[in-house]
Each structure stands twice: as structure tokens, then as C-alpha cells.
Known about the structure:
The protein is built from 14 helices and 12 strands. 48% of the residues lie in helices and 21% in strands. By secondary structure, it is α+β, with helices and mostly antiparallel strands. Helix 1 packs antiparallel against helix 2 and helix 3 (119-127) crosses helix 9 (233-248).
Amino acid sequence: MDQQFNEGFFTHSFENLKSLNYYFEIQSDWARGNKEMLMVSTILNEQISPEIEDKISASCSEFSEQLQSNEEIFTAFYINDINYHENDKELILKNYALIKAWVDNLYWHIIEDTREKTEEEKIAILLNDQQIFETLKRLSKGPIPLEWLREWFNENFPTKDFEKIIEILDEKKFIFINQIGLVEKYVLLVREVNAERIPPDSVIEYIDDKPELIDLLLPKVQEYYSEYEKKSEEELKKDTSTLFKIMADPKKYNLLSELRNGLISKDLLPKLVSKKSLDSLIENIEFLKKYDVIEELNYNDETYIVLKTNLQITTAFPEWMRKLLPKETEPVIANRYSPKLKETYDDEVKK
């Protein structure tokens, strides 16, 4: 690459594609001039705001600092010449694996900044608003005159805008306002939303990969759900609020998404992410451990982070409306994940 500077960020557009490119140098004992010029590119098929561009640039800068801090990382880029560098084969393979892990971490950072939020995230962000959460819970008991609801709302949330909340809920099709006669209006909840825990689907994958892990994790999952089923209505309400909080937080949701696809080695985290990212990641790990979403397992002298409970958001007709239906209607699951483990878990419980 012919560049005026040894590090920089630039964008390029072609038809409906846009690339964001960060180039930089690293030290190299094997390169002419003892430097390697590298570039990492992000290609998007939609326009993004300047704020997101800045976030991507910052993530790439952090990535470059990670590489520059490792004096041997240049060897990873000689993976195709591994036979030529026979004496350094082990070093090349080790750093190549490290680079792949760092790129994967950068990918998740950029995904977090650029991806469109999933349906369950959008619902969680809305329900994470305490006054919306409590208003929907109040309406779940049955239709209520608009004026009564306004009085209840103003008493419980005196600093909040009732009209705005009603407008949002009406817009999102959670409620229906029915006018009876010329004056009286009733508010009806037409869509009940709930956040709940289910056994983690991804655990089933460990049976083939690391069979011993299922023996460590499954008893913990079974024990947790045995206690979970005993929770009171008030405890479940509090837990639901916590689950919405988790799924509304981009970093916690990102970690949840990664763990839905498999386990993470906690011991490798300091090597995979920067100090700044590591502090934030550990904080989120501790939070999810505290609320029994994840579990740490020790296996072969290594600590793994795995899902203890998966989370899902369901929408259904409210209870008062279900009583009017001829038969129970199955809830709709936002961004449904195949509950492969559910059958396995149920079978294990029956044994």
C-alpha cells in the first residue's frame, strides 16, 4: 500500500456498498524494512451515521494497538509459508489462532455498533422502561377506563408523561382504546408480553464437542429450574423486569448472543480483548452470573463460561382475553430459537 501516513482511516462507496478501512503498521522481523502494512475493512450495504463511523474507527484503532503490542504477532501472517519457516511453525500457528480470535472479537464489536436490533431487543428496550412495564402489568388485569388509568399512572409516576406513554403503547399495538358513547373511553390490553427463562439450546452441542461438560452443567440447570418453578408471582414479576433489563443492554445482549452459539473460555479472555474491553466484559459476566443466566465450569484445568438459562420474549393474548377464547392460544416467541434442548432436559428430569 502506498500511503502518506503509517496509520489512518478512510471510507469508500461503490453503488450500494460502503467500506470503512483502517490501515496501520506493525513491527516485523521478517519483512523488508521491518514493518508490515495491514488493513482491516468493514463493508456495509447501508448508510450509517457519522457517530457509528467514529465507533468503528475507534474499534479498529483499539484492534491495531492490540496487534502492535505483541512483538511476535507478525508471524501469524506467514501461515501460508509455514513449511518455509519450519523452526517457527509452532509460533506461527499460535499467533495465527490469536489473530483469528482478535478478528472475531472485533467483528462482534462492530456488529454491536451497526446491526439492526432484533425484535426481542426492541421489545426489551421498550419494556425496560419501568412506567411502561408497570402500565402493561396494570392493564393485564382487564380493561380500565382511561381516566382511572390516568389517575393510577399520575399517582405512581408523577414526573412522567401519561399521554406520551399511551401514545407509544397504542402505536406499538399493545393497547386498544375503545370509546363508549360520547365521553367514556376504555383502555384494553391486546398483547401481553413476557420475558422468560428456558433451558439453553446450545448446551446440546457440548455433547459432541465436550461430553463431560453436559455432566457438569445439566445438574445445575435442573436444580435451577426446580427452584425457579417455585417462585411466587411477585418474584417472577421482578425476574421478568431483570430479564428485560439484560436484553435491553447492548453489551449484555451481545454476550448472550455469543453464548447462545457456544461456550467461552474465561482463561483466554485477557489474550483476546483489550484491557478496556476486558473490564467491561468481566463486569457483564459477573452481572449475568449474579442473576443465574450464565455459569462457570471448570474442566481440564480451564474455566468455561456457558449459558445456564437462555432468555426469550413471548407475546400472547392477555389473560382476560384468553378466558374468552374457545381454547388456549400458544404464545408467539420473538426471534424463536429452536428449543432442541427442551426435549433432552425434559427427558432427563423424568429419569
